[in-house]
Design a protein that fits this description.
- The protein has 9 helices and 26 strands.
- The strands form 6 sheets. An 8-stranded antiparallel β-sheet has the order 19-20-21-22-23-24-25-26, with helices on one face. It has a 6-stranded mixed β-sheet with strand order 13-14-15-16-17-18, with helices on one face.
- Helix 1 runs parallel beside helix 7 and helix 2 packs antiparallel against helix 3.
- The longest helix is centred in the first third of the chain and has 19 residues.
- It starts with a strand and ends in a 5-residue tail after the last strand.
- 25% of the residues are buried.
Length: 440
Amino acid sequence: MIVYKYRGGNEEIFLRDLKALEENCFYAPTYEDLNDPCEAMVSSDRIDVQTNVIGKIFGGNQDALDDFRAATQDVISSRKSIGIYSLSNSKSNELLWAHYANGHRGYCLGYETKTLLNDNMYQKLRSLSVKYSLKLPKLSVLDINNDDQIINKLIGTKSKLWSYEKETRIISDVIGKNYYEHSALKSICFGLRMNDDEKERIMKCLKGRCVNYFQITQEKSTYGFGIKEVPDLYQESVSYLNELEVKTGVLRYRISSKTFKRFDKKGQITVYLKEKILEEDLLALGKDIKNKLFSMADKVFMFYLLDGMEDGKGCWATTHYDLSGWENSIHGLTIEQEQNLTENLRKNPRDNIGMWIDDQFGGNSSLTLYEENGKITLETQYPNDSVLEEEVTRSEVDNIARYDSVQDSGHGEYFEVDKTGILRYYSPDGLFKTLNPFRL
């Protein structure tokens, strides 16, 4: 289901709303700041009658009745203290274009409610469809313990005169600025009178996000209006939260998981990189992710993995942020270190069984398996040029070569090399590392 928000106003309002689009946020006021002065009005006559009946049944204890009435009012008041983001089920309502989009000089946002609600990691959101009535909704004692029922009557019911709005409301436990998953914004429709400069500024702000753009048109010789799709002026831009332009070119990555603890203002994210990047580019990526996903966070922990690494089993690098600043750390091989190890492997004159670059879980080395004078050796070379040699024995298991250390450590560790050259390390707990072969 797509729901719509009409926006429009002077330059100051336009810039404010443009910043909200860039930050993936919306403002949810309380009912008191909405434009209908009759918001949250209900009839409590039924509660008063029921309370008096209950009082008679239990002996008419006035203090107990007063306490019950006070508690009831506290419940009702607390349900009014929520954020409300008002939207419509229609993007072609002429009255809404006139009232809320500055007489067609503004625009209309289209959100997918499923993504808006279910993929939100920042705060709890729910939606309700507003019901319209000629009479005030009546609260009863039975509503007090039914949170949904109270909210539907307080916030989800309006006068019949407002029915043309076909309103859907997003209800938040946060009053004011609320954040959402950027992919919830699906479309923007420009008003008939909106100027081209503002359209271009919106497209530039949202470049790379795959937002669909539309334009309201005037139907010839009628009062009617149409809608046509218009091209994105920045369609060829880098993909939002998948690519980033840096000094060395376009950095490509994929977000694996992300979480945010609102009360601690702490975010955590795991990112897969297509390839290793420079430390300065790593910091640029960290700052971009912080601005786009965790602008409200006091702490963010970012973990970067390379393709082939398994989430939860180490990482290639980290970028951490707190209020004191940024900290970068590369745990695996840097680009320069890997280049040096690669160059040494290419200079290796032996007829090797196999060669690998180990950039996982603290390996940070190159491996060469070779046989010489009837002895099989695993040679490990580190970035500081130190070399460790370990004699191993070979056996055949289901057409796969298994290698065990001659100097048995007692830990039960061994490795296998299959016919394609893939090396797999095993411990008593099973497979814990896989390395693809290095090819000259």
